[in-house]
From TrEMBL:
Location relative to the cell: Plastid, Chloroplast membrane
PANTHER family xref list: ASCORBATE TRANSPORTER, CHLOROPLASTIC, SOLUTE CARRIER FAMILY 17
GO molecular function, one term: phosphate transmembrane transporter activity
Keywords: Chloroplast, Ion transport, Membrane, Plastid, Transit peptide, Transmembrane, Transmembrane helix, Transport
Protein name according to UniProt: Major facilitator superfamily (MFS) profile domain-containing protein
Gene3D superfamilies: MFS general substrate transporter like domains
Length: 596
């Protein structure tokens, strides 16, 4: 008699012979003494010194699963155990399984149950020996029992029990990993970054709503209100470049986690600081800017490690859409909380959400795939794409970075982009109220529309960009196409805005302007990781510093222009800078890696 090893689901009757489901491998061993129960095994192992063969089959007493008889394979050569699907070896069998042997010996033909099994030889081939039958038993499924001996190779681990197949009709009944266990780890990082940016803008815009009851309570003048609003940018500017340096040196996980905790604490402390006095409030708002200033560089660093270039645009678009939706959420919920619980509730409620995010971030996030024990080897290969993991930077090659024309294209284009974007987002309520004659309630509701439009079109642009890359279009051309849409689209609709005469058309032009602006997420905002993934945090810190300065200067310059001129002049300056940015970007930018 010879043995094989196969386990498959079938009916409980031997009449089901000839059918079997998926076969799996297992490598196991057992000592010849003391007697041990066979583990379930699941790979055909044919051939022995006597020339006969059979199949090792099983019957489950827990779920009525019975394996069927297979025809013996005569004079078959030994078949080695394979290594496929080795990851399933640790699954435990929930029901008890008894194993039997089908003998080709005409004298002892029938089912035999081994009491002891010797191990496998070093090559992975079963080499059993047999003794005389000790007992006979009638029945269709059980006959004589044999003892098997051989060279011992250690005890069978409990984890070696594997069942492939389900009930008699459904091989899918076997337990498989839950959907959240199959969710790619890199997308877990993207989703967590999305929610961090959602909280970032929720905590930022709540002051624009709460400042109204606060100024009434504390008697602040418009100049004081402007000072409070601008104090956020004192800290925000300070940590743009520093945040990039820290992220590239210590890892994006540490820096982004620090930023969320820092600005969440500052948000919660805002009501206390306001009651203590104006200087305390200005310091707390600047501290909040410090925390939010590291968010974008740290996010850019961690995604440069986790996201392959084929998924870069849509991943970044999803994360940045968290900012837009955070503004929508903050503007929508702040009035409700203030009316029900008072203005401090906005800061307490929004700030406390950071603790929930930080807990998940500490449990699930790592700065790179090489530090994450949960990421699979297949996903790691997909992320790296054949490249090697490099150590975090110990020093920043400033001279090399600033000598690259593509870096300056990022800086100049970010400035031109943010000039128009900050003007529209900052002055839009005033434009709706003064030019279109909407009341303040209508202006507030319409202010949400551009953020929603940007959230939608940012993700559409991301999918378009990644599709173009997948179809073989060069990364350089993809970045130039997407950013050209992000520049020329707003330029076109702002030009039309000065020509329209109806409020409906004006709102439509404004929404289309911001929607096309969102394509920049797949242009310049993705380019930092293209040209220098190791220095992605520093590069974004550099360009975003220019972008923040554009917001500060552009907002102030708009007020000056409106004192001397009209809204048409405001739009013309923005259109001019959009055109300058388009030229600079298409001449000097690249999608190739220029910084190693």
């Amino acid at each position: 008699m010879a043995t094989g090893a196969v386990l498959s689901s079938s009916s409980s009757s031997p009449a089901a012979a000839g059918k079997h489901d998926t076969m799996m491998m297992i490598s196991y061993s057992s000592t010849s003494s003391p007697r041990t129960r066979w583990p379930v095994c699941s790979q055909l192992v044919a051939g022995d010194r006597n020339g006969g063969t059979g199949r090792h089959v099983a019957r489950s007493t827990g779920n009525q699963l019975s394996a069927h008889i297979q025809q013996p394979l005569l004079n078959s050569p030994p078949m080695r155990l394979c290594n496929n699907n080795a990851g399933l070896l640790k699954r435990r069998l929930l029901s008890r399984v008894d194993c039997f042997l089908l003998s080709s010996d005409p004298v002892t033909n029938g089912w035999q149950k081994p009491r002891n099994l010797a191990g496998l030889d070093s090559a992975g081939v079963l080499q059993p020996e047999y003794r005389a039958p000790v007992r006979k038993q009638r029945g269709d499924c059980r006959a004589e029992q044999y003892e098997m001996t051989g060279a011992p190779m250690g005890d069978v681990p409990a984890e070696a029990a594997v069942l492939v197949g389900g009930d008699a009709a459904s091989p899918e009944a076997v337990s498989s990993p839950a959907w959240w266990q199959q969710f790619p780890k890199r997308m877990t990082i993207v989703v967590l970054c999305f929610f961090s940016f959602l909280l970032c803008n929720m905590d930022r815009v709540n002051m624009s709503i709460a400042i109204l009851p606060m100024s009434a309570e504390f008697g602040w003048s418009p100049a004081t209100v402007g000072l409070i609003q601008s104090s956020f940018f004192w800290g925000y500017l300070l940590t743009q470049i520093l945040g990039g340096i820290w992220a590239d040196r210590f890892g994006g996980k540490v820096v982004l986690g620090f930023g969320v905790v820092w600005w969440s604490i500052a948000t919660i402390l805002t009501p206390f600081a306001a009651k203590l006095g104006l200087p305390f409030l200005l310091v707390v708002r600047a501290f909040m800017g410090i925390g939010e200033g590291v968010a974008m560089p740290a996010m850019n660093n961690i995604l440069s490690k986790w996201i392959p270039v084929s998924e870069r645009s849509r991943s970044l678009a999803l994360v940045y859409s968290g900012m837009y939706l955070g503004s929508v959420t903050g503007l929508a919920f702040s009035p409700f909380l203030i009316s029900k619980f008072g203005w401090p509730s906005v800061f307490y409620g929004f700030g406390s959400l950071g603790s929930i995010w930080f807990t998940l971030w500490q449990l699930k996030a790592r700065s790179s795939p090489s530090e994450d024990p949960e990421v699979t080897e297949d996903e790691k290969r997909h992320i790296l794409g054949g490249s090697t993991i490099k150590e975090p930077v110990s020093s920043i090659p400033w001279k090399l970075i600033l000598s690259k024309p593509a870096v300056w294209a990022l800086i100049v284009s970010h400035f031109c982009h943010n000039w128009g974007t900050f003007i529209l987002l900052t002055w839009m309520p005033t434009y709706y109220n003064q030019v279109l004659k909407f009341n303040l309630t209508e202006s507030g509701l319409l202010c949400v529309l551009p953020w929603l439009t940007m959230a939608v079109f940012a993700n559409i642009g991301g999918w378009i960009a990644d599709t173009l890359v997948a179809k073989g279009v060069s990364i350089t051309n993809v970045r130039k196409i997407m950013q050209s849409i992000g520049f020329l689209g707003p330029a076109l609709f702002l030009t039309l805005l000065s020509k329209v005469r109806t409020p409906a058309m004006a709102v439509l032009c404004m929404a289309c302007s911001q929607g096309s602006d969102a394509f920049s997420q797949s242009g310049l905002y993705s380019n930092h990781q293209d040209i220098g993934p190791r220095y992605a945090g520093v590069l974004l810190g550099l360009s975003n510093t220019a972008g923040v300065l554009a917001g500060v200067f552009g907002t102030a310059a708009t007020g000056y222009i409106l004192q001397k001129g009209s809204w048409d002049s405001v739009f013309q300056v923005a259109v001019l800078l959009y055109i300058v940015g388009t030229v600079v970007w298409n001449v000097f930018s690249t999608g190739e890696r220029i910084l190693e």
